[in-house]
């Protein structure tokens, strides 16, 4: 192994040769903690605003604004996963020059996307809020929050691309450290700007943007100061046409999948908006509680994608399949454990966000309907992440879009008018998780996805 790759330490070596469950967990926990702190600083906004401004402001910093922000950020995270897969495969195959080209292509792409998102967000976010039927008592707060966020959207884009590069080479610890710093900055600024200076939703928005700027600066420093092959040099910023095509081929389906998720959630959010401010506030608070489950599943998904990517580049096919089985078992056990925990701790969690008894009661109703079905989502995240790690992202996108997004929207449009209550809306989640999980299990077990990618890459055949 070359010196440049050896310098990154146990990340690359362990992923392709260490004990699988130990290496998965050693990679998983820093990612989990990183996503935890990312979720925490979003949650802090909701807690501080809900306690010091009111339930209208709480609904504004979540609800429609959160859905629209997730639409664009989710697309970019999906797109950047293409870069993570490409870099991890080059890195696993010890192709240093290709790693460098991929890093500079990914960085250049992120700058272009940041510019486009800033323009689109500032121009269209407010009309989108109105199109979603955001109530007038929330609209003013929501407009302030979303405009400030999109003005600084370059910072989460830089961080997400940079952390994806670091994770691709097996470094999941530094992105964690950067998010811890970002979270601490956000907590301090939230208390300072909202609780002390009484700046309301504007203060929460500024705290979020400035804390994201801190994480972006730190990840750039990590990439520009390293002597390893993934070093980022401003003079070398350029897009390699072939690598860019591969990033888009792998990442764009994942990004579009995220957009479809967000689009279906926009339709659901628009439906929820018709139930009034109490339901919107309860749904916002539930979303923050629910987010801790999704961050854990996302950490498993990122872990298995990188794990499979490096082992695919090293042509260790048996190790790929074994790692998927191990990761599925860990994720399933975690999902069941979280479900049990939230069923008991739910009321205490809601009191972090609001003291309004009606909002808490509505939120607990949502929680009891959705939390017991968390386990039905596990196969979607793990199997999709594994397949995507080999570079096969189109079919997973199609299955997810049809099974989750299209079916969910069809349910909202067909079933909800016949029984227009919140329970009918919420049932769309376990219904679509279960259906899509079955699709992924069938696709994974038939095995054609791996044989096809081996043939496309010209690798040695998988031993039967």
Description:
This protein is mostly helical and 464 residues long. It has one domain. Helix content is 83%, strand content 0%. It is built from 19 helices and no strands. It has helices at 3-6, 10-17, 20-52, 55-61, 63-92, 96-131, 136-151, 154-168, 173-196, 200-225, 241-273, 277-313, 317-350, 357-370, 378-389, 394-414, 422-426, 428-446, 448-457. The protein is globular. The model is unreliable at 1-13 (pLDDT under 50).
What would you say about this model in short?
By secondary structure, this protein is mostly helical.
How many runs of DSSP E, i.e. beta strands? Answer: 0
- What form results from the Cα inertia axes? globular
Radius of gyration: 21 Å
* Mean pLDDT over the residues: 86
The main pleated sheet reads as: none
Could you state the order of secondary-structure elements as H and E? HHHHHHHHHHHHHHHHHHH
* Helix share bin: over 70%
Number of helices: 19
Q: How many discrete domains? A: 1
Structural class: mainly alpha
Which descriptors would you attach to this protein?
mainly alpha, globular, disordered N terminus, single chain
List the SSEs and their pairings:
Blueprint: H1 3-6, H2 10-17, H3 20-52, H4 55-61, H5 63-92, H6 96-131, H7 136-151, H8 154-168, H9 173-196, H10 200-225, H11 241-273, H12 277-313, H13 317-350, H14 357-370, H15 378-389, H16 394-414, H17 422-426, H18 428-446, H19 448-457
